């Protein structure tokens, strides 16, 4: 079964690049640009992983992780950020679903490896 990824990224170029890299690795990706879209899309997936950009425009995506922790506590969250906020690991204490934080610029191979690790599977290896 293909693992599902819910990707929240407000930069359209980065969102497209991340989506393509994850799809090429065999993941089923839903990519959205706003917190409201991410919350709405969360109701459509029953398992998988969420990848959230910390800053979406002028707002933070922490409410999305909080909502996921309540509604889908089994879905892990990986944060991606270019921000210097929470450099001491404080994000991990803000939501029980947060498993990892990647800092921009993100190497695409690292992103795919992180998704493989957090989901406990490697769809790339399974496809071989």
From TrEMBL:
Signal peptide: none annotated. Pfam families: Response_reg. Residues 4-119 form the Response regulatory domain. The modification 4-aspartylphosphate is found at residue 53. InterPro entries: CheY-like_superfamily, Sig_transdc_resp-reg_receiver. Keywords: Phosphoprotein. This is Response regulator.
């Amino acid at each position: 079964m293909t693992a599902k990824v819910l990707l929240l990224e407000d930069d359209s170029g980065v969102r497209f690049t991340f989506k393509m890299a994850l799809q090429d690795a065999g993941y089923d990706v839903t990519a959205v640009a706003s917190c409201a879209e991410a919350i709405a899309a969360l109701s459509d997936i029953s398992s998988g992983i969420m990848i959230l950009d910390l800053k979406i425009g002028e707002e933070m995506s922490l409410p999305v992780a909080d909502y996921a922790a309540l509604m889908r506590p089994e879905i892990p969250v990986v944060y991606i950020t270019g921000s210097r906020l929470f450099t001491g690991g404080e994000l991990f204490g803000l939501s029980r679903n947060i498993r990892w934080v990647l800092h921009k610029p993100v190497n695409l191979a690292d992103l795919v490896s992180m998704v493989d690790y957090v989901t406990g599977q490697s769809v790339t290896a399974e496809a071989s």
